[in-house]
Predict the 3D structure of the following.
Amino acid sequence: MKGIGPVRAELLAGKGLLTVSDLLYYPPFRYEDRRNVKLISQLAPGEKAAVLARVSRAKLSGFRRGPRLLEATLEDGSGTRLHARWFHGERFADSIVPDARMALFGKVELDRENGYPLIVQPEIEILHADEEGEEILHTGRIIPVYEAVGEFSARRIRGVIHRILKQIVMPPDELPESVRHSIGLPDLASAIRELHEPPENADVRLLNEFRTPAQVRLIFDEFFWLECGLALKKTKARTSAGIAFAVTERAREQIKKMLPFKPTQAQRRVMQEIADDMKRPHPMHRLLHGDVGSGKTIVAAQSAVIAIENGYQVAVLAPTEILATQHYWYFKRLLEPLGYVVAPLSGSASPREKQQIKSMIGRGLVHVAIGTHALLEHDVEFAKLGLAIVDEQHRFGVMQRLELFKKAGGVEPDVLVMTATPIPRTLALTLYGDLDVSTIDELPPGRKPIVTKHVQESAVQGVYNFLAQQVKAGRQAYVVYPVVEETETAAVKAAEKMYEHLSRHVFPNLRVGLLHGKLSSDEKDTAMRSFQSGDTRILVSTTVIEVGVDVPNASVMVIEQAERFGLAQIHQLRGRVGRGPHQSYCILVTGKLSDIARERIRTLVESNDGFHIAEMDMRLRGPGEFFGTKQSGIPGLRLADLLRDSDILEKARSEAQRLIEASRLEASAANKELRAAVEYIQEHWQRRYGLVQVG
């Protein structure tokens, strides 16, 4: 492209803009109404207006080496002069010269020195002789405002896209006409043009809400092709060969023996959904999600029993050693009395221990292997893998999940994905669109809602007094510090400092423990066991206790610098208490709060509902940040917004499912349009989303 050399091309590539097509789909983040073109004599202070005028005088002042002020006087024959000022005006010194014709846009003020209208820092466009009477690009119309890419300004992007629209033939419209007409959408070429160059009479309010027909068409496209890909993969998964597990009478008896309490109605419903899936001769791809403490792991253990009773092995994959260890003890407690062998495989085990366990897994002597990424190492071979349980799966990269699935050899194992992060429905439809979703939406009976309080850090002494009362009554407590990825060392230091302060000065007569990510596995294990046994009364920790820790006697969770956590993360931490019969408390200690942080804290104090909290978290942080990881598998949507556009997502989803269903039922040779659409989906899906299927 003219105007884009190697340096600029590299800048744009960093933003994922590699081709002309990428730029055409690069949406403005807002639109500015600059249609208000006036004569200088008509300008009124306080309004935003555009003016076409000739420079009568221009003066650059200030030191040669530093930033300089450019002042200009302009006339348009209406009898009044306009003054304009630019700080750092040296950039325009060669263009804004006497007799130059230009278009300006900005907010009008009154120049107190001479009473003339004045515009400070106006947007400008120099009009060359051959351009007069031609269209004006940066003013006098509705202007798309793009996010700048480094030094590549919104203005430059606007210019480049304008040139592209003049020069190229638009891409073919791949959306099936039947779909386009049933929804009443404009054609692709018109939609792309109007995205960047809205018509004269466009409603700016609708443009900024992303609700014009052109914008809706492009948003629909993104969702439609994504949902088509998911529907295709789901159809394919339902027809590929898997293991048809039998739910035998012995399996039922074993499950009954294992259950430590009467399951809730929700747990029963979800277990039935999983058992029905496992009976089918196709691989299960199911997401099990529910609020913290809703009993997902016991359901996973029941599905493990079905696999084992059919002669297969189970792999349980956890994102952290602490969570893997928790799962190991939990599964061991439930399954070993039934005669099953449960073995941990973690990165911190000695080479000899690892080799021994790997050998047992390979010979089929281990029924349930539980571990972190160590389970994915190439020399870990299962004799007969039938079920993979992946916990907190959004923390794993797609390649790592693919490695686990390869371990099963020829037949694809059933996959049960668990997460304690309740997922808003709109996001679940997209992120997990190719999984069947089971939701545990009921807490075990007898659980008391956790009381959440917000305290300013200046009043923290009152929190310590409350901690002392709770410990005196026989309870235990957590004090947690945030770990922000780049500054884990700082969080560890803060936790160590607080540990010293609490153990020496505040609670010298109590046993205070310390747990953080930089401790060795043995040290972490010792710290956790001491807390679980009740020897340690207060555990000072970084966020390594976020998931999987189960100490029913812990009734207080103090979260320091709570403003630095995301909503879902605090909700996860809060779920570490309230697991026993006692009333539990979560105390959020904060410093100065931004508006968003204040909204987060208010939401937590008012609600214990994980699904409401997840919806709010996504609203405040956006879907990309919601899971706190780039590897979450959330597709890169350009225009579409999962929250704002959930109604369009629903339409796109039903149209996609209808199309894929029709293409399966009708002979594709007899339906040319369907065949072309499905071919396009397969090519487009692979190019844009690649490995999402392994999620």
Q: What stands out?
A: The chain has three domains: 6-169, 249-440, 451-607. Residues 130-134, 626-634, 690-695 have pLDDT under 50 and may be disordered. DSSP finds 23 helices and 21 strands in the chain. The radius of gyration is 31 Å.
